[in-house]
Design brief:
This protein has about 325 residues and is α/β, with parallel strands linked by helices. The protein has two domains: about 120 residues, Rossmann fold (3-Layer(aba) Sandwich), CATH 3.40.50.720; about 180 residues, NAD(P)-binding Rossmann-like Domain (Rossmann fold, 3-Layer(aba) Sandwich), CATH 3.40.50.720. It has a seven-stranded parallel β-sheet with strand order 8-7-6-9-10-11-12, with helices on both faces. Helix 5 packs across helix 7. The protein starts with a strand and ends in a 10-residue tail after the last helix. InterPro entries: D-2-hydroxyacid_DH, D-isomer_2_OHA_DH_cat_dom, D-isomer_DH_CS, D-isomer_DH_NAD-bd, NAD(P)-bd_dom_sf.
Length: about 325
């Protein structure tokens, strides 16, 4: 019988979000509900398993780990990419990698969280919440979004949703990305601007580009210096898109009004990280896609992917 591990089920939702019983008699299923240190701890824990089911990109799969998993033959990966998986190493070792998709991809989950961060940052909600609990009262004055400029770094599916909500708040929306055209932006009532203009004009700048070598540290010290002193930076995309050290410096020195961050260069965010000591930052633990509906869709797709593999017809296979 195959041994199957469901990785990184921090919220213990996997077994009640999908019908794993359809694999009964074919797989022995274990749930791993904690983060494994890679490669040593992960190699020791995962060595017996033939099948691994990933939730997004939580457990990295570098070559150094894959080479220590002699029994591994199949992995499901939820979402379009697993940027911390060495696909070439998996292919060389004969591991089948199935990128499973779902009818419930939570396309609105990330923009909804991004707007939660915008509102929390603009109105200092977390800071004032702590104040009320400590006996304080009205320590800050927030930013009115109506009439302000929302800047979108990226106008893909998520960016388009962000634009529509921003317009509902009465905001002027501008956008930039390397391949964005005036016509594509205008289709969503958005004005395309140059990159430097985006940073200079935005009262709220929200990041929605894909992480790649081209976009790594796309937002650095130079770009942050272009922003208004009371502007807000929101990142629900990927942590390494922003130069975190430069951001901490700008926030600590009051050269930026605040930030709402769901993603970080290192995740989980290390204890005592400088960001945790700043009052003008709202932090969430990579919750962008983490809704009950989205996670259930991922697990249901994973079950379907394992069934397809065991039937000899794996879906969404990628090789390198």
């Amino acid at each position: 019988m195959k041994r199957l591990a469901i990785l990184d089920d921090y919220l213990r939702l996997a077994l009640r979000s999908a019908d794993w019983s359809v694999l009964e008699g074919q797989c022995r299923i274990d749930v791993i509900d904690r983060k494994l240190a890679v490669p040593d701890e992960a190699a020791e824990v995962l060595e017996p398993y033939h099948i691994l089911c990933h939730l997004r990109e939580r457990t990295p799969m570098p070559r150094a780990l894959l080479e220590r998993l002699p029994n591994l033959e199949f992995m499901t990966v939820t979402g379009k990419a697993h940027r911390t998986l060495d696909l070439r190493a998996a292919t060389e070792r004969g591991v089948v990698v199935s990128h499973v998709s779902s009818a419930v991809q939570g396309s609105n989950a990330t923009p909804e969280l991004a707007w939660g961060l915008i509102l929390a940052t603009a109105r200092h909600i977390a800071y004032e919440d702590r104040g009320v609990r400590e006996g304080a009262w009205q320590r800050t004055a927030g930013m009115l979004l109506d009439g302000k400029t929302l800047g979108l770094l990226g106008l893909g599916r998520v960016g388009q949703r962000m634009a529509a909500i921003g317009q509902a708040f009465g905001m002027r929306v501008v956008a930039w990305s390397p391949n964005l055209t005036d016509e594509a932006a205008a289709a969503f009532q958005v004005r395309r601007v140059d990159k430097d203009e985006l940073f200079a004009q935005s009262d709220v700048l929200s990041i929605h580009v894909v992480l790649s070598e081209r976009s790594r540290h796309l937002v650095g010290g130079r770009e942050l210096a272009l922003m208004k002193r009371d502007a807000l930076l929101i990142n629900t995309a990927r942590g390494p898109i922003v130069d975190e050290a430069a951001l901490v410096e700008a926030l600590a020195q009051g050269r930026l009004g605040g930030a709402g961050l769901d993603v970080f260069e290192t995740e989980p965010l290390p204890a005592g990280h400088p960001l945790t000591r700043l009052d003008n930052v709202v932090l969430t633990p990579h919750l962008g896609y983490a809704t009950r509906e989205t996670i259930a869709g991922f697990y249901q797709a994973s079950v379907a992917g394992v069934r397809a593999y065991l039937a000899g017809a794996p879906v969404g296979v990628r090789e390198e």
